[in-house]
Design a protein that fits this description.
330 residues; 10 strands; alpha/beta; 8-stranded parallel sheet
Length: 330
């Protein structure tokens, strides 16, 4: 199984093209499958006086959301260059559209996967437009209830997208997320209830949590990446730096390797240890020919290369065909 790992560049480029290119380079180098940006026109989705989230206030110096996001808005010219640079570096470009214009832009650019951010899970006209594209969809579910997730899936399906083309990501939108709020068990709930592929959009500072999600069946992992957590901007502090992201990817690879087969079997590497670790049936004390074998005169000891301990019931109650000294193999 291969895990689709998304390096969420988001707005961590700080609207500087050279930063965006560096983030693409780093995402490729650390082993991400795709690098994801955000596409929008600020005027289309934020009111001029929309308040800042607490984490945004903490990590920026703006008076409202509009001012903050406007400074991070990528122009079409910049987006074009980013898409072309991803092609050059042979890493998949992804984007979250935050408005209807963004959906149209990704349609025009023939981007095969649309990532729906958590904030749009109850945005009916938006969901209808995305669903009508009939492309692969990754849907983040932060700040939502089970019912809201169900409703979003119904709208996407009704608009033209098949459930087999939708992946649900368990997500918490606090930046960074506390471990006790990640709720990895929801991944299992999503799989069982909605019969769709599942994954995790993780905003914690952990490099281990994503690999735990993979062990639970996640097929997509999304994690923010930054060049430096000390950079100004709303999302840097909840992002991994390249070395940490690389460690996270390695953790995922290790878990995938360790998951192995669903069938319980003896591996080639452990076959040589069977006779050393298992036990054979031996005489617990001297046994005369004709005596009955019982729990008092038999025991089991290593090595296990003679009569296996698994033959115990076959021997109990049988007569000894010869004399045995203590510790003789039976």
């Amino acid at each position: 199984m291969k895990i689709f790992i998304i390096a969420e560049a988001g707005v961590n480029h700080n609207n500087k093209l050279h930063n965006a290119f560096k983030l693409i380079d780093k995402a490729k180098k650390v082993g991400a499958s795709a690098v994801k940006f955000q596409v929008f026109k600020t005027e289309n989705y934020i009111q001029k006086d929309a308040p800042l989230a607490k984490y945004q206030k903490k990590n920026s110096k703006f008076n409202n959301q509009f001012e903050l996001i406007k400074k991070l808005e990528l122009s079409e010219k910049s987006l074009e260059k980013i898409i072309n640079y991803c092609k050059k570096k042979k890493i998949q470009f992804l984007a979250s559209p935050f408005d209807l214009w963004g959906v149209d832009y990704l349609k025009k650019k023939k981007i095969p996967i649309i990532k729906i951010p958590s904030g749009e899970i109850n945005n009916i006209p938006y969901l209808e437009k995305v669903g009508a594209l009939r492309r692969k969809i990754i849907l983040s579910t932060g700040m939502s209830t089970d019912k809201e997730v169900s409703n979003a899936l119904k709208i996407l399906k009704r608009s033209g997208t098949k459930l087999k083309n939708i992946t649900l990501l368990q997500c918490n939108t606090e930046y960074p997320t506390k471990l006790e709020d990640i709720n990895l068990n929801v991944i299992s709930t999503f799989k069982k209830k909605f019969k769709v592929d599942v994954g995790l959009s993780d905003h914690s500072s952990s490099t281990v949590i994503p690999s735990a999600a993979v062990a639970m069946g996640a097929k997509i992992i999304e994690k923010h990446i930054t060049l430096n957590r000390k950079m100004p901007g709303p999302d840097h502090k909840a992002s991994l730096e390249p070395k940490e992201f690389k460690l996270m990817v390695q953790n995922i690879k290790d878990v995938l390797k360790a998951l192995g087969s669903k069938k319980k079997k003896v591996t080639l590497s452990e076959k040589k240890n069977i006779f050393i670790a298992r036990k054979s049936i031996v005489a617990k004390k001297n046994i005369l020919k004709g005596e009955f074998f019982n729990y008092k005169n038999l025991t089991t000891k290593r090595p296990g290369n003679k009569t296996s301990a698994s033959k115990w019931y076959q021997l109990i109650g049988k007569r000894a065909l010869k004399n045995y000294f203590k510790d003789d193999f039976i």
